[in-house]
Every structure is written in structure tokens, then in C-alpha cells.
């Protein structure tokens, strides 16, 4: 029995990929083989991608990579071939057909990563594009919506049922009381205007969490209130941590609840001085603090390399109060949870978009005459920390699969012909 599906006619045997050749060296193009999809996999022609700070951490800091490293973790494009069916990926696989528009986050293997014109990846790393959003919008979503779903459930240990069941509304009075208390607890989202932060606010709102404190530049506050924040603070304001403390204390004093602590903190940035140090002033015994890794000790600049730390317990030792629980977020481990592995990208991400629970980040389109130029320009914007409340998106292949391989799409209207192709 064939273990892969041959490349369909017209699909090139090799394709260009953006690679990191060494820390802080210019990005380069490598021509890689286009790999036929194996069991449960799809071959996708990549049309859009988005850049994330991880690209910078890898390109300038060499973070957890072994160059040459094929770059990118987000992709959006068209399925041009499906591998043979595979029992373990059956549900995700069955949702897809040749010609479908898909998007997602994939990072593990060079063949899966988004800064190349074809990827071959497991279908459980793919979401089918809902009709109400464009591909340009969709590529802003997966990396950080998956991050938020993983962090809230794994690192902050919040219960997020999927799908929301009627038991939520039929709970007995005692359960309802406990749930209500849980939903009223303070959750601090520091860096709420970041891509991670915006998805966190929306998912928390969907989960019914009402007391979410957002910390971001003032210019984003109106929008963050609309996304689900109960109150916003400006991290540029002097004494911001005192203001937050006072707000929580005043709320406790005016209610029957005398607890003026913030039990859950989501640090969406992981910046030693910019976020962790102020958080040491707010976290109390028992507070769980989920920190986006890596901790940035020193930012990359045009002249100097960055410094990072992966172990959150090694920074600001002795400055956290006793009993604060620090969690370093590693989204790439989300597939260790079987349910998340098979449902997060195929089911949950597209449903949240389709139902309008989550809206994509604003997009800033990065221009450039070539694939390499667009990747390089995006990296420069990240290095200058010039993105604010937006996601950098850019074209991988400027032509769509429909334009490049029209013969493949004739089959969409004729299912018998699909059989001959895949
Ligand atoms: N380990 C993991 O699993 C994981 C997963 C996802 C992301 N991350 C990391 O998380 C970080 C954020 O990722 P992202 O894609 O969300 O970034 P992003 O959207 O590019 O972040 C830009 C935003 O950061 C905000 N910001 C910068 N410094 C801040 C500070 N001191 N306080 C509050 N806000 C601040 C800015 O807010 P203003 O516009 O308000 O100034 C800006 O809008 C990156 O380092 C990324 O690598 C880690």
C-alpha cells in the first residue's frame, strides 16, 4: 500500500524556502524538495503568512534552532494533495478536500514551516478557512489563538469546555455559586494590545470571565474594552502597579468580598524590565503568573544581539514573593494533550472565528518584490519593535493555486476526478 500520495501533475519538485543560516546573518533562500503527503497529511500551496516575534528570537538570537533553519510558523493556502487516510488523524483529515483553503500553525519539521511556497504537514495542524474571513486575516490567528487556548487551560488551569455544554446552564445552585466566583476573579493581562493579549481578552470574554484587567498603551484602550477588558491601565504611566492595586482594593472594599489579590496573571510579553519586574509588585502568594517565553533580557537591535532566558525561575530571583507560581509558556507542547492536538486547529480555531467569538488581529501588509525581501522587511519591523496592536502579514507565493494549477481545480466540481488525482 502506498504510504504517500505522489505529487499531482504540475506541482514543482522543488520550491523556495526562507532560511536562517546563522544568528543575525541575512535571511537566504534555499530550494527544498516538495514532499508528497504521507498518511493523514496534506500538501498545501502557501499564499499568505504572518511574522511573529519568534522569527526574530530565532533569526537574531538563534533561539532553540540549529541553522540552516527553515523559518515561519504560520501559513495560509490551498490544499493541492491529500495523503492516504490515517486512523489517528481521521477526523481532521476527513474535513479536507483538494482545493480547500486552509490556515494554521506548524513548527516542528522543516517541511511544515510557513515561509516556503509548499508545505507538507499533518492535517491536525490545519483549520479550514471559514467563509466570513479572508486568508489575509486568518494568518493573524493560529499561532497566538492556539497560544491563548493552551496557556489558559494548561498554565493558568482554567476550565474551558468545548463545545460549551448545556450542563453549564443547568448546573445546581452550589455549582453555579462556585462558577460565579471563578468567573469574577481578577485576571491581569499585561501586554493586552499584543497579538497574544487581544486573543486572550476575547477568549476570556467568551469563557465568561468578567474582571479582566488589561495593561497596554492608552491608544489601544477603547478597543481592548470592546474585546473584553473590564478596565485598562497604561504601562507607560508612572506608578501603574499602584494604580492597579488600588483599583482591586477599592473593588474588594465596595463588595462583600474582602480578597484584594489578583490570582491569575498572563504576561503576554515576557520582558524582564518591561513586564516581569512590575509583575513582581503585583503577584502575591498563590498567584499564578504565565509568562510568554523566552524572557527577553535584552532586545535585539540593528547593532546588538538579544539575550534570552528560557527558565523563568532564573530571573528576578528573590524578587517574587514567596508562593508565587511562575509558569513559562511553551505553546509548541500543546499537542502533548491529545484533545488539543486533534481538536484545537481543526475544530476550535475555525469555530471561534465562524461564530464571531474571536476577530482576527489588524493586519499590516509587509511589501517586497520577492519572497526574501518580504521576509527580511518583516524581520526588520520586528527588530525595531515597530508593530503595535497589529500583525505583520505578507504574501508567500504571489499567485494563488487556482492561477498556478488550474487543472487541479477542475476536479472540485467532479468528485470522480478527485479520485484520480489523490
Ligand atoms: N512561548 C510561547 O509559547 C509563545 C507563544 C506566543 C508568543 N510568545 C511570545 O510572546 C511575545 C508576544 O508575542 P505577540 O505575537 O503577541 O507580540 P506582538 O503582538 O508583536 O507584540 C507587540 C505588542 O507588545 C506590546 N508591548 C511591548 N512591550 C510592552 C510592555 N512592557 N508592556 C505592555 N505591552 C508591551 C506593545 O503594546 P503597545 O502597542 O500597547 O505599546 C505591542 O502592541 C513574543 O515575545 C513572542 O515570542 C511566546
From TrEMBL:
* SUPFAM superfamilies reported in the protein's UniProt record: GroES-like, NAD(P)-binding Rossmann-fold domains
MF term (GO), any: oxidoreductase activity, acting on NAD(P)H
InterPro entries in the record, alphabetically? ADH-like_N, ER, GroES-like_sf, NAD(P)-bd_dom_sf, Trans-enoyl_RdTase-like
Q: What superkingdom does the record give?
A: Eukaryota
Gene3D superfamilies assigned = Medium-chain alcohol dehydrogenases, catalytic domain, NAD(P)-binding Rossmann-like Domain
**Looking at the keywords, is Oxidoreductase present?**
yes
> Which N-terminal residues, if any, form the signal peptide?
none
Enoyl reductase (ER) domain location is 22-393
Task: Give the UniProt keywords, A-Z.
Answer: Oxidoreductase
Q: Which family does it belong to?
A: Belongs to the zinc-containing alcohol dehydrogenase family.
According to UniProt, the name of this protein is: Chaperonin 10-like protein
Report the source organism: Neurospora tetraspora
Amino acid at each position: 500500500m502506498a504510504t504517500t500520495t505522489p505529487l499531482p501533475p504540475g506541482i514543482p519538485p522543488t520550491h523556495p524556502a526562507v532560511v536562517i543560516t546563522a544568528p543575525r546573518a541575512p535571511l537566504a533562500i534555499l530550494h527544498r524538495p516538495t514532499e508528497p503527503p504521507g498518511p493523514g497529511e496534506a500538501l498545501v500551496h502557501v499564499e499568505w503568512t504572518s511574522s511573529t516575534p519568534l522569527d526574530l528570537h530565532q533569526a537574531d538570537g538563534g533561539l532553540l534552532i540549529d541553522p540552516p533553519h527553515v523559518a515561519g510558523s504560520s501559513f495560509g493556502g490551498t490544499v493541492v494533495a491529500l495523503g492516504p487516510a490515517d486512523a489517528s488523524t481521521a477526523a481532521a483529515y476527513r474535513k479536507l478536500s483538494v482545493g480547500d483553503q486552509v490556515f494554521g500553525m506548524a513548527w516542528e519539521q522543516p517541511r511544515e514551516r510557513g515561509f516556503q511556497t509548499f508545505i507538507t504537514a499533518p492535517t491536525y495542524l490545519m483549520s479550514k478557512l471559514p467563509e466570513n474571513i479572508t486568508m489575509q486575516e486568518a494568518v493573524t490567528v493560529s499561532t497566538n489563538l492556539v497560544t491563548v487556548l493552551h496557556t489558559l487551560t494548561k498554565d493558568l488551569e482554567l476550565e474551558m469546555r468545548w463545545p460549551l455544554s448545556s450542563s453549564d446552564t443547568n448546573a445546581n445552585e452550589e455549582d453555579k455559586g462556585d462558577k460565579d466566583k471563578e468567573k469574577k476573579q481578577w485576571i491581569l493581562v499585561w501586554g493586552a494590545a499584543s497579538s497574544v493579549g487581544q486573543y486572550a481578552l476575547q477568549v476570556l470574554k467568551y469563557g465568561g470571565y468578567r474582571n479582566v484587567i488589561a495593561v497596554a498603551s492608552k491608544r489601544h484602550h477603547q478597543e481592548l474594552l470592546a474585546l473584553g477588558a473590564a478596565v485598562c491601565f497604561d504601562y507607560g504611566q508612572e506608578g501603574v502597579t499602584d494604580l492597579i492595586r488600588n483599583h482591586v482594593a477599592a473593588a474588594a472594599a465596595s463588595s462583600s468580598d474582602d480578597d484584594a489579590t489578583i490570582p491569575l496573571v498572563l504576561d503576554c510579553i515576557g520582558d524582564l524590565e518591561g513586564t516581569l519586574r512590575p509583575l513582581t509588585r503585583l503577584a502575591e502568594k498563590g498567584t499564578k503568573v504565565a509568562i510568554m517565553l523566552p524572557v527577553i533580557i535584552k532586545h535585539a537591535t540593528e547593532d546588538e544581539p538579544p539575550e534570552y532566558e528560557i527558565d523563568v525561575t532564573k530571573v528576578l530571583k528573590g524578587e517574587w514573593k514567596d508562593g508565587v507560581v511562575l509558569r513559562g509558556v511553551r505553546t509548541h507542547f500543546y499537542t502533548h494533550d491529545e484533545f488539543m492536538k486533534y481538536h484545537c486547529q481543526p475544530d476550535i480555531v475555525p469555530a471561534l472565528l465562524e461564530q464571531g467569538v474571536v476577530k482576527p488581529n489588524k493586519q499590516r501588509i509587509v511589501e517586497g518584490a520577492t519572497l526574501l525581501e518580504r521576509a527580511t522587511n518583516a524581520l526588520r519591523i520586528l527588530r525595531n519593535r515597530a508593530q503595535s496592536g497589529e500583525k505583520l502579514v505578507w504574501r508567500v507565493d504571489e499567485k494563488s493555486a487556482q492561477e498556478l494549477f488550474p487543472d487541479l481545480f477542475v476536479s472540485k466540481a467532479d468528485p470522480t476526478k478527485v479520485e484520480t488525482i489523490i
